[in-house]
Amino acid sequence: MERTIIVGGGHGGAQAAVSLRQEGYEGEIVLVSDEAHLPYHKPPLSKTFLKAGGAAQLLRPESFYTDNAVELKLETRVAEIDRRAGLVRCDDGAAIEFSSLILATGASARRPPIAGADLENVFVLRNMSDAERMRAEADDASEIVIIGGGFIGLELAHTLVGLGKQVKVVEMGQRLLARSVAPVISAYVLDRLFAADIDVRLGAEVRGLEQAGARAAAVTLAGGERLGADMVVLGTGAVPSTGLAEAAGLAVDNGIVVDHAMRTADPRIFALGDVASFTHWQWQKPARLECVQNANDQARHAAKAITGKETDYRDVSWFWSDQGSTKLQMAGLSMASDRTILSGSPENDDLAVYHFDRDRLVCVETVNRPGEHMLARRLLAAGITPSEADIADGKDALKALLGGPAQGRSA
Amino acid sequence: MAEAIAIIFESAEGVRHEVAARLGASLMEAALMNNVPGIEAECGGSCICATCHVYCDQVADIVGAPSDEEDDMLDLAAADRRAASRLSCQIKVTSALAGAIIQLPARQY
Ligand SMILES: Cc1cc2nc3c(=O)[nH]c(=O)nc-3n(C[C@H](O)[C@H](O)[C@H](O)COP(=O)(O)OP(=O)(O)OC[C@H]3O[C@@H](n4cnc5c(N)ncnc54)[C@H](O)[C@@H]3O)c2cc1C
Ligand code: FES
Fold this sequence. Notes:
The complex is a heterodimer. In chain A, the strands form seven sheets. Chain A has a five-stranded parallel sheet with strand order 3-2-1-7-19. Chain A has a five-stranded parallel sheet with strand order 9-16-10-11-12. The longest helix of chain A has 15 residues, at 292-306. By secondary structure, chain A is α/β, with parallel strands linked by helices. Helices cover 26% and strands 29% of the residues of chain A. Chain A has helices spanning 11-22, 49-52, 62-67, 128-138, 151-162, 183-195, 243-247, 292-306, 370-382, 388-393, 395-402, and strands spanning 3-7, 28-32, 70-73, 78-82, 87-90, 95-97, 100-103, 107-109, 122-123, 143-147, 166-170, 199-201, 206-212, 215-221, 226-228, 231-234, 238-240, 256-257, 269-271, 276-279, 286-287, 318-323, 326-332, 339-345, 350-357, 360-367. Chain A folds into three domains: 3-108 and 239-306, FAD/NAD(P)-binding domain; 111-236, FAD/NAD(P)-binding domain (3-Layer(bba) Sandwich); 325-409, 2-Layer Sandwich (Enolase-like, domain 1), CATH 3.30.390.30. By secondary structure, chain B is of the alpha+beta class. Chain B has one domain (4-103): Ubiquitin-like (UB roll) (Roll), CATH 3.10.20.30. Chain B has a three-stranded mixed sheet with strand order 2-1-5. In chain B, strands 3-4 form a two-stranded antiparallel sheet. The longest helix of chain B has 8 residues, at 68-75. The N and C termini of chain B lie far apart (34 Å). Bound molecules: flavin-adenine dinucleotide and FE2/S2 (inorganic) cluster (FES). FE2/S2 (inorganic) cluster (FES) binds at residues 28, 41-43, 45-52, 87, 89 of chain B.
């Protein structure tokens, strides 16, 4: 019997169910998620959700799953993959056989080895229940310290300041987002935080959390400084949820290792999204990406492979982050970059950084230029490298490079 | 239950889906929450993915022109841009749209 089991109901898992049906898959589909909610959008959790309140923004309505014969098992954890028997065991005791298995288990918060990190007013933000708890606690908090200056931590800093809180960010590195963006963007992001009255400490090492009963009362820094806090957020990154795969003997190396079609070494088993490690076409090295685009596109590829229409995963990666009212967007991969060209200026709140690997365009970071971001995705998909003059001339010149009306996949 | 109006989404092949669109929601949400195929909305309505492209020929005056930002995005949507192209996440459902026919492009990505 044909049955695909999808483990994880996040962006990738839900898209896999959608794409399987779009590709004409006629077997059973079972989507197992340990969360209580129907699959929902994660990006708003650090942006609008804390402010606007309300419910989760669903990826698809409940009727989608019934209309498309996708069996949803919510609040259920897959506890084990039995590859010999070709089945998964769930924590509710069910054993379900599969002909194909998709692991879309995502990533969970990295908890740094800081004394006191498990106190009751210390939070992480990975899912809706984290966000709901944080929202409840934030109501009464006035001083909040965020440990770690990554995208999610910085978005939260802006959101919490918008709620009238005093916010401090403690970052170990000498600049923000050091592994993700060019120095000029890091500097701009820092500037926006300062402009929003957010206190940012760079090169600051956390010694521990000062405890008062079951709660943290302050974050203490290696230099001895004490930052009072009635709420602490750990924004210290995420680790891929590879436990199931590892226990099943699948290769794991900073993520579940998959090929160009998202397949593991076991031809029935696929992995995608935040949890998957794959050789990136732009970089030719193993990469693991944490963004909505990657989860969605990899899900589309896995669905194609399962329905016998295998293709290479060669999509252009893209990502966005709202830093307060600033729209930061990235297209492509900056890891391979050895040269950059700047366009626009931080003073005008309008800039772009073009990254090159020798003479090839590999990544474009934009600030408040959503149209240019779309252009960059197109250029990267088409393998077109603009000249310095094209970049200086701006959108129209770049558009001209693409020639004619839109053709083929956008990105 | 908020008030709703009827909106008709028509696919590139001419297949029509009539949905009950909640007033105040976006056209994108109206399509997605009623399982109209042909809208992807990867960014969830942030005006940055252009996978919620629609043609509003029949109600162009009512929905009006896109913002500069949306205008840039429309130029680069996967399907051809037309005079009445809009991103459906940027259009609010109002009673003026009752019975409107909104056309969907052949592709969103
Ligand atoms: C607060 C926040 C803000 C973000 N903002 C952006 C943004 O602005 N732009 C962007 O591109 N990306 C953003 N991201 C990243 C993006 O959400 C992820 O890259 C994306 O969700 C990855 O999809 P996924 O399916 O791989 O994993 P997830 O969406 O994380 O889904 C994995 C699911 O699997 C479940 N699961 C794990 N193990 C099991 C098991 N054994 N049994 C059953 N279920 C299991 C988990 O509970 C989870 O629900 C953000 C992430 C967060 C947390
Ligand atoms: S949903 Fe992404 S631009 Fe409309």
